[in-house]
Amino acid sequence: MIDDTHHALLKTAAESHDQLIARPAGLNTRAAKALFAKLCRTALAVEVVVTGDERHWHQDQRGPIGLRLTPAGQQSLGFGLAVSVLAASRPVLDAGSDRAEMKPRSGTKQALIIAMLRRDEGATLADLMAATGWLAHSTRAALTGLRKRGMILTKGCDAEGRTVYRLTDDATVEVR
């Protein structure tokens, strides 16, 4: 599963204050992608958006993307779960992450969607499609992405019987 080289990378990350796994020097792009995917698949590390001055593996539309050691990764190395590690972990796709860390950059389509979903009247799929210029499947994928990030998305009907989506902070609401 994880060889000695990978184990050394994880151990170095566990001993660092930010828990970020450094991309090995001299690793070509293809090999780095494969290693990144392997570490994420094992659940020992999680993909996170980092600041420009932190260690990262690549960049995408969200910004620099790094790998952070998970609590499971720490346990596999024989380390206990430190509170600082749990507080430092801000996974991109983890449903348990802190909502304050999920604020999108202003002016983006994602920020527009979130603002529309937070309105009292919510937003229909057609509203979201018109605002973003996306097709239905892309708009639904964006909604799924919000759910995966831990946001609570509810579905209801408006007076005309159309499906309306809303974001809420109430964790007691049943999520579909």
From TrEMBL:
<dbReference type="InterPro" id="IPR036390">
    <property type="entry name" value="WH_DNA-bd_sf"/>
</dbReference>
<dbReference type="InterPro" id="IPR021880">
    <property type="entry name" value="DUF3489"/>
</dbReference>
<dbReference type="Pfam" id="PF11994">
    <property type="entry name" value="DUF3489"/>
</dbReference>
<protein>
    <recommendedName>
        <fullName>DUF3489 domain-containing protein</fullName>
    </recommendedName>
</protein>
